[in-house]
């Protein structure tokens, strides 16, 4: 069953002079199995939105259900795995094993069941078994983020919710996380991620939710998003749109470097062919 938000509003510092409406009358439905990107400018309300999914925050008005249940119920907490931006802030155990085992043990699973889940999560997060005895804080940023991912995956969640999971990582770390998420999604887990990094995430997103000043200003498929005016696009897509607006017949709905290169070369060839044909025709009229 999906995550359903109906007429949700969230305020901070309610009934004080500092009151802020972080979310205003939000309606949203996230189906199982989707890879969803939550986009929007700083302060738009993205983090507030995802904190509703596992009951970390309660709405001031409206209704939210996860698999038909209240998100603050224990059952939902184990179905929604959360991973925050700074991996170092959420790792607090002495070893990687203890870190990944924390969730299952906390939810009352036996030592044996927990061990099985740790190994499974380790593999899903593309981590080596030799890492299990290491201090999580001795790992690279990308590895720490994957340990945090494995910790969330050890509960076998239906939904994996991430807040800016590649921010601050080096290019290799970013690539590792993106590839790991692709694999996890392929195994059936719904992934919902807040991101500013359209360059890295855009090719993975199946559905996009754009938030503007606490309201949803767009929700739909990536294709629909790309056909929408005035939305943030990855750099390659912006360039293709610009070329198209200058009358160059490239497909503006392209967003990877490889596709863009192919498209530009195709148009270049077409232009050269047209030019050669024109010159040939001119020569024939001269004769
Ligand atoms: N604990 C809080 N107390 C008061 N105001 C808050 C609190 N958390 C967030 N806000 C405010 O609520 C609004 C939405 O914040 P939120 O963190 O959800 O935005 P965001 O889109 O995730 O931003 P960012 O991209 O900067 O993380 C902002 O105006 C923010 O300043």
Architecture overview:
The structure is a single chain. The chain has 287 residues and is an alpha/beta fold. It has 2 domains: 3-232, Rossmann fold, CATH 3.40.50; 240-286, no CATH class. Helix content is 42%, strand content 21%. The protein has helices spanning 46-52, 74-79, 87-90, 96-106, 111-124, 141-153, 171-186, 198-201, 222-226, 235-245, 257-286, and strands spanning 3-12, 20-30, 35-40, 61-66, 80-83, 159-163, 190-194, 207-212, 215-221. It has a 6-stranded mixed β-sheet with strand order 5-6-7-3-8-9, with helices on both faces. A 3-stranded antiparallel β-sheet has the order 2-1-4, covered by helices on one side. The longest helix is centred in the C-terminal third of the chain and has 30 residues, at 257-286. The radius of gyration is 23 Å and the shape is globular. The N and C termini lie far apart (74 Å). The relative contact order is 0.13. The structure holds adenosine-5'-triphosphate. Adenosine-5'-triphosphate is lined by residues 12-13, 20, 22, 40, 42-48.
């Amino acid at each position: 069953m999906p995550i359903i938000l109906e007429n949700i509003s969230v305020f901070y510092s309610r009934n004080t002079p500092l009151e802020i409406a972080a979310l205003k009358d939000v309606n949203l439905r996230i189906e199982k199995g989707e890879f969803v990107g939550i986009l929007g400018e700083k302060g738009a309300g993205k983090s507030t939105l995802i904190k509703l999914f596992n009951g970390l925050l309660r709405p001031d008005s409206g209704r939210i259900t996860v698999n038909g249940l209240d998100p603050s119920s224990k059952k939902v907490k184990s179905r929604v795995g959360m991973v925050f931006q700074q991996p170092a802030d959420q790792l607090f155990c002495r070893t990687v094993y203890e870190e990944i085992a924390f969730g299952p043990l906390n939810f009352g699973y036996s030592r044996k069941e927990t061990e099985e889940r740790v190994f499974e999560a380790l593999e899903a997060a593309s981590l080596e078994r030799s890492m299990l005895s290491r201090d999580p804080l001795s790992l690279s940023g990308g590895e720490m983020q994957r340990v945090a991912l494995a910790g969330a995956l050890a509960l076998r969640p239906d939904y994996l919710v991430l807040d800016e999971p590649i921010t601050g990582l080096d290019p290799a770390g970013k690539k590792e996380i993106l590839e790991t998420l692709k694999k996890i999604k392929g195994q059936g887990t719904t992934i919902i991620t807040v991101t500013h990094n359209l360059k890295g995430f855009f090719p993975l997103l199946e559905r996009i939710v754009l938030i503007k000043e606490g309201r949803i200003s767009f929700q739909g498929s990536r294709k629909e998003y790309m056909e929408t005016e005035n939305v943030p696009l990855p750099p390659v897509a912006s360039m293709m749109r610009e070329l198209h607006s200058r009358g160059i017949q490239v497909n503006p709905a392209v967003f990877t470097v490889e596709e863009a290169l192919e498209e530009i070369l195709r148009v270049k060839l077409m232009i050269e062919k047209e030019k050669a044909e024109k010159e040939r025709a001119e020569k024939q009229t001269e004769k």
